[in-house]
Amino acid sequence: MAADGKLPDNLLNNPLPDAIRVSLIVTRILEDHGIPYLIGGSVASIIHGEPRLTNDIDLVADIREEQVSQLVAALETDFYVDDRAIRRAIRERRSFNILYLETMYKVDIFIPRGNEWSQEQMRLREGKYLVEGDESTVRFVSNPETTVLQKLWWFRKGNEVSEQQWRDVLGVLKVKADRLDCDYLKHWAAILAVSDLLEKAFNEAGIYPSMTQAPNAQGN
Length: 220
Description:
Number of domains: 2
Number of helices: 10
Helix content: 40-55%
CATH class of the largest domain: Alpha Beta
Shape: globular
CATH topology of the largest domain: Beta Polymerase, domain 2
Distance between the termini: 25 Å
Structural class: alpha+beta
Radius of gyration: 17 Å
CATH architecture of the largest domain: 2-Layer Sandwich
């Protein structure tokens, strides 16, 4: 990305899905301000699993209150952003959203809760191409295991009615299959109280945990 925060010409001149274009812009600004982040939610499940359209982006960003003024100044050229909403989210360890002015595409940004699980998600984030083969588009994304677990947690929190959340989980399980660390999944599923959902997802995806291997055993 150019020094002014804009996308380089090779990306501007090519049609990109809003989810990718907006993710690239926001994450570059976060990187420029030294803010740890990861891309999660639907974008992460698409990267690790099966492609689909998505109407918004979920990011986790460890923003400190003293960074807010400069962050807002960097974002407000391209986004609707509310300084007070960001500060409130930081104090309450919750989320806020910004809107990409060109298309009104929404980005939900979650402040880490500071618990062991949020630290684990950040620890295991992976650098992934958002545009295949273009090194300028490598960004931090939640890894397959934490993506599945967080999706299951949200599915439970939403009373287990979101078919899309469930399809996203199955998509990652099916695509990654023998490259998943199922012991890790089981361990954290118990902590997050989603063990039954994980077992159900394994069954529906045709995954047999005893036959799976840890991540990177056969490459990404």
